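A note from the maintainers: we've had questions about how concatenated examples are separated. There is no special marker in the raw files; a new sequence line simply starts the next protein. For clarity in this README we add a label.
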Amino acid sequence: MNILRKKSITQMLEQSQKRALNRTLGALDLTLLGIGAIIGTGIFVLTGVVAAEHAGPALIISFILSGLACAFAAFCYAEFSSTVPIAGSVYTYTYATLGEIFAFLIGWDLMLEYLLATSAVATGWSAYFQSLLKGFGVELPAVIASAPGSGQGGLVNLPAMLIILTMTALLSKGIRESAKVNNIMVFIKLAVILLFIAAGVGYVKPENWHPFMPFGFEGIVTGAATVFFAYIGFDAVATAAEEVKEPQRNVPIGIIASLSVCTILYIVVSLVLTGMVPYTKLNVADPVSFALHFVGQNTLAGFISVGAITGITTVLLVMLFAQVRISYAMSRDGLLPGVFSKVHENFKTPFANTWITGLIGAGIAGFVDLTTLAHLVNMGTLAAFSLIAIAVIVMRKTHPKLERAFKAPFVPVLPILTVLFCGYLMISLPAITWISFAIWMSIGTAVYFLYARRNSELNKG
């Protein structure tokens, strides 16, 4: 009953050749999948709050710090996903290098991360959607427009539930169809962001950038730990590896290209936003639209709201997709019940898993106020990034002759920097985040010893 037993690379590659899932995605699809996951709540919601409460105009440095941590991790993801192109992302890579219990716990961690991210993003989508409806004179009754405990007198956040169920229905029918819808929506939101930059740059007042660091360097770091949420998503590209054509080439391109495009856009939008509006006034739920209203561009602000809804929809789609692929891989290895890895005969998707996940996510979004849980999502992601970095070092030592289509540069220096950056951001998160994370991982440990260890395919073997 060895809890550190490892799944061999040979086993994994043989598993990927069975092709239970359709390989239909190309490099452009993956890049747009990554952009679809990354650009959403971060750029349309978090920018204003972090500027007003933590970083001021130095928000740009917060984004650069978070982007560096992600960039280092991205190279590690690219090496693994091109070498072992199967579903599961960091869970799968940890299984091959560090052992079963670590793999299960990081999979358990990622399941919570993606599920909470899906539900939290759906709540943001609901807020923007209701704002758009108000522009047309339609106001939803408070009782069906917000979750209990949000202070708005609601019993259920119905719009948040309905958008998750809509994305669930789309994903259950097939990844090719989902990717087409995602690609269209990504082009729309990129056009809207470029429109904001083009329109807003003429209203930038350099005096709004002073003082540049009103909260000091500590505020910048806290801001970096918070806006890290804005980068969550590029790792979801790795979860799609088993559904990619020529994964050895296309997965690294998708990961690195999507992260690069989004980092550049975040930096430019941050500069324009804090240049248009004094940072003290940006503590609003829709800072990008607010900035245009502030300078009198009300029509453009309406377009931005449409773009925000579109952008947040793609985040929902990719987060839900990633969650399903993680639990699919864990189930296939026997660590979760078999229903999660059952593939639909016609659609070639984990159909039941998709609907189970979607219904749970919709329930959380509809009835739980998630504002206090956003940091927990960041904690889970930072832990995953740290493990993927460690796994790359271990893989280089244990499988030095393994054919690698892409090799992360400067190993072990770059992976060590990844762990240090992520650790630095983790200790900047509130104490309640650490307590919540410890509780969730304790539950996961119990599930592993009571169920997963006994039912593991390696144990049966």
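[label: protein 2]
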Amino acid sequence: MNQPTNVDQQHPVIHGERPSMIGMDDFEVRQRFETKEEAVLTIKSYNIHRGVEYKVFESDQLKYHGKCVQFGNGCKWLIRVTMRQRKGYWEVRKYNGPHTCLATEISTDHKQLDYHVICASILSLVMADASISVKVLQNVVSSKFGFKPSYRKVWMVRKGNTEDASTIFFHRLFWMFPPCIEAFKYCKPLISIDGTHLYEKYEGTLLMAIAQDGNSNILPVAFGLVEGENTDSWKFFLSHLRQHVTSQPGILVISDRHNAIKAALLVEDGG
């Protein structure tokens, strides 16, 4: 525990430790934190080190309230931290602890070992050497908390810490193949559109438009890479589809009636 300060002689205060210095035995009522972020990181790190998890029941600009996932089932651990607006700091107002449940096996990862906790652990290393490998950072986090986050989770944190204002981001892409566009002239006057999620390293959504010839053979006519299925991304895809593929009138569109598709089709230039 940190030593009490002399800020308030009537109520000695124990300041929350920085995430990189977590080593406290437990929390105390009236324990202070400079910001909500410091309080949350400390609570998460506390639970990660003990191999237990908690759920957040309230969280806003004035309070943060969490309970053990086993609360009411053998454990009474809970913590409530609130903002003391007049004094300008966050304070533990209620605490039942320590955990009385047994630490459970949580595979090799931990729910509370999220972006913010990992970032606080590796930021200085990434800032000192932007080329540091993800595997090294994985091992750093593992040696600190006893849980090893996935490669992708650490990669996303590292990626976020190495981007600056000069970074160019991929937004959207539409493409088609001329032979398919030429063949569409002899197909049925209908287009089927749909989207599918992309996984692993590169996320986003692949949008597709396909047609059928007179023998019901499938003909792919257009593709799009977008951030997800929303009105803007479908408007982007459908407007290019209209401009480059289905310029003729009277084309029937078949879809799964996704709300974003319906909204995009209602836009004047959305197809």
